[in-house]
Amino acid sequence: MDSDERTPKDSLLAWGWDQRREEEFARYYRKGWQPARVLAIDLRQCTVRTRQGQRIATMAGRLFQEGKPPAVGDWAAIETGAEKDGCLIRAILQRRSQFLRQAPGRETRQKVIAANIDTVFLMTAVSEEFNLRRLERFLVVAWESGARPVVVLTKSDLMPDVGIRLAEAESVAGGVPVHAVSCLTGQGLDTLDPYLTSGHTLAMLGSSGVGKSTLVNRLLGENLLATAAIRESDGRGRHTTTRQLLLRLPGGALVIDTPGLRQLKPWQAEEGLERTFSDVEDYAEQCRYRDCSHQHEPGCAVQQALAAGRLDPARFENYLKLQRELGFQARRRDESLAREEKQQNKRLHRMMRRIMEDKRKRWGRDG
Q1: In this predicted model, which residue has the larger pLDDT, 274 or 329?
Q2: CB–CB of 59/89 below 8 Å?
Q3: CA nearest to 97, candidates 145, 156, 169, 152
Q4: Which residues are CB-contacts of 331 (< 8 A; sequence separation ≥ 6)?
Q5: HEC sequence for the chain
Q6: What pLDDT shows up at residue 263?
Q7: How far apart are CA 184 and CA 178, in angstroms?
Q8: Which of 6-15, 166-175, 325-334 has the lowest mean pLDDT?
Q9: pLDDT of 40-61, one tens digit each?
Q10: Paired sense of beta strands 201-206 and 245-248, if any
Q11: Could you give the count of Cα atoms lying within 13 Å of 167 in the half-sphere of its Cβ?
């Protein structure tokens, strides 16, 4: 039995609960609801951690109607006895951090990858999978989430001089810590110890096959999660993790393993873009014209930095690409909101017509 199970009153402290959460939850205690942390999600059912232990909870339909379904890492208010064989998630507490991405498909909606994360490990292998432009994209999303980003270069045993990759990653990380590790040899794993404190929540973010589940297994001290080796032919890995899962490590740290992300389209990440590309933003502020497009205008500090070799053209192009993506997403959201508002107005008008027709019918009978 875990030590936190022997002290039911404080058992949630080991899962990240704190005094601020206790104060936020006061209004739900008055309703007779109890706090729980979401550990895993399977369709409309969640595995949650309560003060009494692990339980299965069903999501209230209202959460879906309002577009606020729970995510792994969420703190929830649950009502016990509301369901025949379990409990019901009634509300989700305000998230302190969340990883958002554009949901796959054509529909304009956000998808929450994980919530209430303190630190995110942005993971990439040092082999052919290594891609600075992808790393920049991950940094944008990480900074926007509210969590602290840390770059972890995996499979360092595959490269004789891993210092080359470290220098390349540091060149775009903007001061974010960068660590090189090997789960095979154990090299560099001790550099991650400062992030593995009790009650501290981490998330693993990266493409398929970079070693997220392998690292989690190594930290757990057992092969709990399925893994797949990266292919030597093209440096890509098979998709192994199929859902988010919140686990507690032996030392007390909490970790969320996420499915591999083949594509990561930011949802709203203007601040994340500014922090990731702070060098580009600094040059842009020095331009002669405030509305400089950084293309052909005289006195463009960005073009001067490019010509002098102080700014990598590929990095600047990636900045422009992400800027265009965010602008496109913003326009799609505005259009989507306009359509939703129009549909709501139509439903309201239809409802009012039915009410008036019913009144006229009643008046006709009474008359």
Answers
A1: 274
A2: yes
A3: 145
A4: none
A5: CCHHHHCHHHHHHHHCCCHHHHHHCHHHHCCCCEEEEEEEEECCEEEEEECCEEEEEEECHHHHHCCCCCCCCCEEEEEECCCCCCEEEEEECCCCCEEEEECCCCCCCEEEEEECCCEEEEEEECCCCCCHHHHHHHHHHHHHHCCEEEEEEECHHHCCCCHHHHHHHHHHHCCCCEEECCCCCCCCHHHHHHHCCCCCEEEEEECCCCCHHHHHHHHHCCCCCCCCCECCCCCCECCCCCCCEEEECCCCCEEEECCCCCCCCCCCCHHHHHHHCHHHHHHHHCCCCCCCCCCCCCCCHHHHHHHCCCCCHHHHHHHHHHHHHHHHHHHHHHHHHHHHHHHHHHHHHHHHHHHHHHHHHHHHHHC
A6: 62
A7: 19
A8: 6-15
A9: 998 778 999 999 889 999 888 7
A10: unpaired
A11: 4
Instruction: Give the CB-side neighbour count of residue 126, counting CA atoms within 13 A.
Output: 23
Handedness of CA 348, 354, 359, 363 (dihedral sign): positive
Q: How far apart are CA 244 and CA 116, in angstroms?
A: 13
Q: What is the pLDDT of residues 167-225, one digit of tens each?
A: 999 999 999 999 999 999 999 999 999 999 999 999 999 888 888 889 999 999 877 66
